[in-house]
């Protein structure tokens, strides 16, 4: 593979910054901080897990509603980066704000957490859509996979600092409480995310776009409605979105609720943090491996592999009992977590019309986010009905099976030359 361009590197490094949010806020420190806060307030373990699932569902529902609309407007020249900057700022400020919520105020934590989810997921809509602007179709699998790999590597730095602060505080080796150490982790995350957003903001440009026209908002709604009516005409794209709707639901739910699940099983906070760190380390080379194998065997076949691994994860999670079991489960997830997300992004990017990338990534977002509503609700409701989180995780297996069946019917995308076609190019 040829040397990476400045735009490709700048694009990939956003994963380096944003992934700190994913591991510290979505997966590790915040869920533990929230669970402790809810416990102090007298909320049961099953209910606090359910409330977290419901909160994630509400946030993703909001974004699913506005994502396609914003994406359609962002297809106009110069708008993509404006929306990207707004959501990055929203996420960074809200994440920093978590540090100032007192321990025990679990409801306030969930409210502010909603805004962090909107900022992170919202910025990723436009970040993903920038993939068509920074590289060629034949390099997309590798660039997307390396972005995820950089994310895993980069996120380990603030994560290690955060773990060190929390562990030192737990053992009384530094004169701060565990609560204060966790709050410092939120500030570190916000700073890391904000700083490593700057290369993309400075160096990446919207090469594919629609020229501005009068009444852009009204016309954007018209284009959105037309695309929604005609989306079935894009057979490959529509089938892929249906498959993605199901299998990414399971992936996202396992990522967002794994720490709460481990906590319910009685695994200590220290062990959970160490396991999550190891997961990041293992996931980085596997994300690159998925990209390389996709170049050799095709992205679609590697998506099959990723889905099958997650089916095994769901089955194994049902029988989970010990910390060692959780270690094994985490390592299984690490082998495919980044690969399945990276190849889904690049596979879709190859299918979309380049000049309408934001609009179509808006649909990519709405399918993914509506799926993310269903998964946490399923786990939350099952946990409350059965009193066991294991049953909820096992129920996710049906989502992977349905997604796999539909994905088999999706034709392979055709590879085009970078900047081919009639789309406009920003100089």
TrEMBL record:
<feature type="transmembrane region" description="Helical">
    <location>
        <begin position="302"/>
        <end position="320"/>
    </location>
</feature>
<keyword id="KW-0472">Membrane</keyword>
<feature type="transmembrane region" description="Helical">
    <location>
        <begin position="54"/>
        <end position="76"/>
    </location>
</feature>
<feature type="transmembrane region" description="Helical">
    <location>
        <begin position="148"/>
        <end position="169"/>
    </location>
</feature>
<feature type="transmembrane region" description="Helical">
    <location>
        <begin position="181"/>
        <end position="201"/>
    </location>
</feature>
<dbReference type="Pfam" id="PF11700">
    <property type="entry name" value="ATG22"/>
</dbReference>
<protein>
    <submittedName>
        <fullName>MFS transporter</fullName>
    </submittedName>
</protein>
<dbReference type="InterPro" id="IPR050495">
    <property type="entry name" value="ATG22/LtaA_families"/>
</dbReference>
<feature type="transmembrane region" description="Helical">
    <location>
        <begin position="236"/>
        <end position="260"/>
    </location>
</feature>
<feature type="transmembrane region" description="Helical">
    <location>
        <begin position="83"/>
        <end position="101"/>
    </location>
</feature>
<dbReference type="GO" id="GO:0022857">
    <property type="term" value="F:transmembrane transporter activity"/>
</dbReference>
<dbReference type="InterPro" id="IPR020846">
    <property type="entry name" value="MFS_dom"/>
</dbReference>
<dbReference type="GO" id="GO:0005886">
    <property type="term" value="C:plasma membrane"/>
</dbReference>
<feature type="transmembrane region" description="Helical">
    <location>
        <begin position="107"/>
        <end position="127"/>
    </location>
</feature>
<feature type="transmembrane region" description="Helical">
    <location>
        <begin position="272"/>
        <end position="290"/>
    </location>
</feature>
<keyword id="KW-1133">Transmembrane helix</keyword>
<dbReference type="InterPro" id="IPR024671">
    <property type="entry name" value="Atg22-like"/>
</dbReference>
<feature type="domain" description="Major facilitator superfamily (MFS) profile">
    <location>
        <begin position="236"/>
        <end position="427"/>
    </location>
</feature>
<feature type="transmembrane region" description="Helical">
    <location>
        <begin position="12"/>
        <end position="34"/>
    </location>
</feature>
<feature type="transmembrane region" description="Helical">
    <location>
        <begin position="360"/>
        <end position="379"/>
    </location>
</feature>
<feature type="transmembrane region" description="Helical">
    <location>
        <begin position="326"/>
        <end position="348"/>
    </location>
</feature>
<feature type="transmembrane region" description="Helical">
    <location>
        <begin position="391"/>
        <end position="410"/>
    </location>
</feature>
<dbReference type="InterPro" id="IPR036259">
    <property type="entry name" value="MFS_trans_sf"/>
</dbReference>
<keyword id="KW-0812">Transmembrane</keyword>
<keyword id="KW-0813">Transport</keyword>
């Amino acid at each position: 593979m040829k040397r990476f361009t400045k735009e490709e590197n700048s694009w990939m490094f956003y994963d380096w910054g944003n992934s700190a949010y994913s591991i510290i806020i979505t997966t590790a420190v915040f869920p533990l901080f929230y669970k402790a806060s809810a416990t102090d307030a007298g909320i049961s373990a099953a209910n606090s897990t359910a409330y977290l699932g419901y909160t994630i569902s509400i946030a993703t529902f909001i974004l699913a509603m506005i994502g396609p609309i914003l994406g359609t407007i962002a297809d106009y020249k110069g708008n993509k980066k404006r929306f990207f900057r707004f959501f990055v700022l929203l996420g960074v400020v809200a994440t920093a704000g978590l540090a100032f919520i007192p321990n025990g105020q679990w409801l306030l934590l969930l409210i502010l957490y909603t805004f962090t989810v909107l900022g992170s997921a919202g910025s990723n809509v436009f970040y993903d859509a920038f993939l068509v602007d920074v590289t060629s179709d034949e390099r997309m699998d590798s660039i997307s996979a390396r972005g995820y790999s950089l994310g895993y590597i980069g996120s380990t730095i603030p994560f290690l600092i955060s773990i060190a602060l929390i562990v030192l505080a737990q053992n009384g080796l530094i004169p701060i409480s565990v609560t204060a150490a966790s709050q410092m982790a939120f500030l570190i995350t916000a700073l890391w995310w904000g700083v490593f957003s700057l290369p993309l903001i400075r160096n990446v440009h919207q090469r594919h776009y629609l020229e501005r026209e009068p009444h852009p908002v009204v016309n954007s709604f018209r284009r959105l409605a037309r695309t929604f009516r005609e989306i079935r005409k894009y057979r490959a794209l529509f089938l892929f979105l249906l498959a993605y709707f199901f299998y990414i639901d399971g992936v996202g739910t396992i990522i967002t609720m794994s720490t709460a699940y481990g906590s319910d099983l009685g695994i200590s906070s220290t062990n959970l943090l160490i396991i999550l760190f190891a997961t990041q380390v293992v996931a980085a080379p596997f994300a690159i491996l998925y990209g390389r194998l996709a170049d050799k065997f095709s992205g679609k076949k590697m998506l099959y592999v990723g889905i099958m691994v997650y089916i095994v994860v769901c089955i194994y999670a049902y029988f989970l009992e010990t910390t060692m079991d959780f270690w094994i489960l985490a390592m299984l997830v690490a082998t495919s977590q980044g690969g399945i997300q990276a190849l889904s992004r690049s596979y879709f990017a190859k299918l979309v019309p380049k000049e309408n990338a934001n609009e179509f990534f808006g649909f990519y977002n709405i399918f993914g986010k509506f799926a993310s509503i269903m998964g946490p609700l399923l786990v939350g409701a099952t946990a409350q009905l059965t009193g066991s989180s294991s049953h909820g995780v096992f129920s996710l297996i049906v989502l992977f099976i349905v997604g796999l069946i539909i994905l088999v019917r999706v034709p392979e995308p055709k590879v085009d030359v970078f900047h081919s076609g009639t789309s406009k190019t920003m100089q």
